[in-house]
Amino acid sequence: MEFTAVKQQVMSASFPSSGDDLAGMAIDFDAYLWRSPLLDEVSVRRTGDPGNLIAATCRSVPGCSIADLADELRQIWSRDLRYSYFEAHVITTGERTVRLDAVTQIAPDDFYVTASIVAQDGNGSLRS
Q1: 114 CB-contact burial (10 Å; exposed 0-12 / middle 13-18 / buried 19+)
Q2: For the chain, how big is the Rg over CA atoms in Å?
Q3: Of 116, 121, 92, 120, nearest in space to 29 by CA
């Protein structure tokens, strides 16, 4: 899988975000996901796992399609959350779930953030 290889390359050539930088990114995840009109429940946590430093779960508003939910997560990641230097992400969809896995790096030879956002449709339960 291409995303996995890119993520591993970034992780082996750099170091994970920590401290205030990681806390700030987690705050951004919370703020930008809550701002979405397609989401009505959001939970964000730092995991301590370099392969998935931030894990977010959310639920869509009733009636939101999986395609619209996937597009919304992609836009939030690309427009609001990723660092401008580098990013890679992959979105997988199921019947009632959208998952975005991502990695972003702030600058060459500088720290990275790995993250996942798992969104359930409006009738699903939250789980990561």
Answers
A1: buried
A2: 14
A3: 116
